[in-house]
Amino acid sequence: MSNMEPHLLPPRVLLFPLPCQGNVNSMLNLAQLLSLAGLHVTFLNSDHNHDRLVRYTDIQARFTCYPGFQFKTITDGLPVEHPRNGESFMEMCYALNSVTRPLFRDMLVSGQFGLVNCIIADGIMGYTIDVADEVGIPIFHFRSISACCFWACFSIPQMIEAGEIPIKGNEAMDVLIRSVPGMETFLRSRDLPSFCRSSDVSNPSLQLIMTETRQSPRARALILNTFEDLEGPILSQIRTQCPTTYTIGPLHAHRKTRLAKHATNTLQRSSNSSSLWEVDRSCMTWLDQQPLQSVVYISFGSLAVLTRDQLIEFWYGVVNSKKNFLWVRRLDSTPGNKEGESEDIPVELVEGTKERGYMVGWAPQEEVLAHKAVGGFLTHSGWNSTLESIVAGVPMVCWPYFFDQQLNSRFVSEVWKLGLDMKDLCDRTIVEQMLNDLMVERRQEFVKSTAEMARLSRKSVSEGGSSYSNLDRLIKDIRLISMETPKC
Ligand code: UDP
């Protein structure tokens, strides 16, 4: 292969995700889909994440069968000991902009990635367009958030102009927002991305997210991990600004369909884990012993940090609900919780957990949600978790932590009717009541709506489905683009 003329090689695509678990998961799925189609992929990981991926997964094995695939690494700009959690999320965005961005440019200019025909970068790093333009490489933006959140972020200037941001105090939290086209009848101030709660429009987080999101119309196209049947009306709005928007999700399910088509057993059997934490598979054995749809799966994702009070309220609510539960508690998800240290948990919670619960530090989430014993998901409404729940047909109780999660949970409850929104509340009686509604009182209603959305999600990634066809189109476009003069 290496002796071939550059123009005879398949196009090489450089994938550059935001260095967070959810973003890396979805971009690795995209990387595999592009590799399956015969494209060559360079995946640019942060040093920190790459070390963890290599330590906790067999990621190299997953990609060795694609001869054109390679990993490259770059700093995320943060010191080694930085916690890299939700509390310091914006620090990461600033570091990426100030430290990683110039380095990324230098690596491209000096040819450290070899020949690159096209870049697919996470659109939250909107500035990647400037770098790509400078070196003359076509760029696509990929977002691993929902279309609804992308659109709300895109509409921040209109909300500011309409005086809807800044939000006028606590009394205005339930007031309807009228200036996000397509969401006029159900979006409240409370449902806006968390940084919109700032009392000052010059707030750096608000400004950064707005500025970066508004860059995407300059990209060749926008790629979204969603599907038409889920977010069609909002996608029509987005296409007024980003006419070429490819919806190719849910990517984790799409990857499975395409792998099944390729039919080589080694490929299908290869692990799909891209976990940055060590997966504790013992929970699968525990799930095997639980009755059908009896278990509430609880996870707040990779970034959320709970206070001790929140943890205790959730814990009482869950134990008092008398439901079986599998709870993912990341070691770094409550401050001051060090390995081996006693947490001084009330005895009734310890007993209740022994009786009906199981806790792990990190779970194989896709598999857990697909397990027949799981009947509900208490989630922070991260976009990957939401899509994984939708595909598995599992109804949700949503407790959004930050960013897009505030919007996702509103859509889950009010638009798609796939669960309940517990936003801004953290009280044991409410947790208990909502779990009871989800698992018992309103179960039939949710079983029906989640089964239908699961069906539509699978249809979208099956041959002839919207996401399936869109991916084919995207790949065709990448091939066409790469016939333009090879760059770098
Ligand atoms: N995840 C996992 N095991 C866990 C918890 C989460 O594999 O115990 C995965 C989950 O399947 C999802 C990702 O981590 O793909 C979390 O991404 P999401 O967008 O839901 O939330 P974030 O972590 O970005 O807040």
TrEMBL record:
Which Pfam families does the UniProt record give?
Answer: UDPGT
The record's listing under InterPro entries reads: UDP_glucos_trans, UDP_glycos_trans_CS
Question: At the top level of its lineage, which domain of life is listed?
Answer: Eukaryota
GO molecular-function term, one example from the UniProt record: 7-deoxyloganetic acid glucosyltransferase activity
Q: Report if keyword Phosphoprotein is assigned.
A: no
Q: Which Enzyme Commission numbers does its entry carry?
A: 2.4.1.-
> What are the alphabetically sorted keywords of the record?
Glycosyltransferase, Transferase
What PROSITE patterns does this protein's entry cite? UDPGT
ATP-binding is among the record's keywords:
no
Gene3D superfamilies per the UniProt record, alphabetical? Glycogen Phosphorylase B (3.40.50.2000)
Q: Which reaction does it catalyse?
A: 7-deoxyloganetate + UDP-alpha-D-glucose = 7-deoxyloganate + UDP + H(+)
Of which family is this protein a member? Belongs to the UDP-glycosyltransferase family.
* Protein name (record): Glycosyltransferase
